[in-house]
């Protein structure tokens, strides 16, 4: 009903509102102010001090249009205590006529020191009419768009608020038992205060969003998100999945032939995954582990549990290099156990692809590894029991669902294990991943030393070249990473091709190869095989080697234009080295001038080796929208709550979500509908 009132607005006006994401009366009342102005009191001109925002009232005594140094309109305004100048760089001819000498103005703005004395630039001005009263509440300033002035938006929000209030659409939804345990004001009262704050309220508490009214709005937003995600979590337990009993003997055979022992953290997550797979409902678990923490062997053990029960396993990776790396490693472990491992990629020859598709469809291949090619229509499984997705944040929601839907039994879903070497900060995990079970490998294998990171200016290339020569002649291997393949006039970055040609001339005594994303699959495989075998000493590469490459003898990496890369990418690249006995050294070469953000990123990667701390800093730097990537494509991000500052509210919302779902399911549904509307389904993938 509220939406009908909104839809009766003029079409052009509705389009402007829709640009702000406002599609209903409820959207309007949740369009909260960015800041506030205090028009409830007047100050004298003599009180004007640089940096202060005040409201004064005075009479125009002089008016002048200046031509130099640029065209501007200047007013001299006075009251009984002094003189203030008003400066307008953009103005209309009608303004000159309307505000002539002798006109009394009420003026609000920030004071600064000008050439002739105190002045305001483009202040807010109104002509004073007879007995014009001061405002009795703080004036809200809303986010607007072109062609939609503040006064129009204020009028629309006020009207929407009154309509919703009359229809009781702002009534309290949350049960009294819930509210009594949460020391927060009522919902309608909070909204009313934020749109029209009394003059005696703390402006600072409003601006910093720490006022109890703000706390209530943020809590309700977080609660809607938590209810939706937990609801999906519980609904999943009503779905069917194959019950995969533990296969201890088969797993022990693999563990017995591995040249290393599992860490305590690996044992813990293997047990968590094993318990999930034995349940009759689909596992939806996220396995987090820093670069080199040993996620692949955990995935292999999970795969054995499915295969031991007669079910197929699909492993999907975002790049061919990573997928092929998984194929080689898992084949080496599982083929000796009598398990056939298959490989599918978009660049495969048609004959090979047809063979792999046939063996997968017949069930001869029990473990199939590939890229996005795995969820294409032609790929059919005989009995898919487990889907493992590596670097899950690189796949969109639709891509992951398409792979899960590839099962023969329509009544049963495969289990799903998602892996990520980009650790998710705790607050983000609590908020956006509340529909998942999360396992964390927070321990590196014994003897794995942290990589030493060096920040070196581009002007010191000769020093870096000397280091490369020294390392390679000593029998070690190195990477030289470039961000682009082709020259970009905009970014003016060194290209991998140019760098390869230059380094080939500098190091005639070394074996150098070039790898990038545009090479064919066979070419990339051949180059990586030579590098892994030690036949190539220096590998010039794009960020195609970011994940999955494991060459223990490579102990040195140079990353050009490191200032252009994100923290996660830098940390992933750095994780390619230091996997052997020699200490890894990662040289981040940067070019001045550095932006503030680039400087901060380099500082973070230099000071931290812990992926979880790097991820936390990255979240603070970028915000959740950028950090989440494609997983949450289309999901409404939090508008009001701040995950770092509002951790207490998030904890409270998590606890309340479980209680309200259990004891008040109808109220839970109404609360989610109020906040998310039709967008709630996005949270379920």
From TrEMBL:
Helicase ATP-binding domain mapped to chain residues: 276-441
Organism: Nitrosomonas eutropha (strain DSM 101675 / C91 / Nm57)
Annotated keywords: ATP-binding, DNA damage, DNA recombination, DNA repair, DNA-binding, Helicase, Hydrolase, Isomerase, Nucleotide-binding
E.C. number(s) listed in UniProt: 5.6.2.4
GO-annotated biological processes: DNA recombination; DNA repair
Listed PROSITE patterns: HELICASE_ATP_BIND_1, HELICASE_CTER
Stated name of the protein: ATP-dependent DNA helicase RecG
Stretch forming the signal peptide: none
Matches recorded under CDD domains: DEXHc_RecG, RecG_wedge_OBF
Enzymatic reactions: ATP + H2O = ADP + phosphate + H(+); Couples ATP hydrolysis with the unwinding of duplex DNA by translocating in the 3'-5' direction
Function: Plays a critical role in recombination and DNA repair. Helps process Holliday junction intermediates to mature products by catalyzing branch migration. Has replication fork regression activity, unwinds stalled or blocked replication forks to make a HJ that can be resolved. Has a DNA unwinding activity characteristic of a DNA helicase with 3'-5' polarity.
Similarity remark: Belongs to the helicase family. RecG subfamily.
NCBIfam families (UniProt xref): PRK10917.1-1, PRK10917.1-3, PRK10917.1-4, PRK10917.2-2, recG
Segments traversing the membrane: none
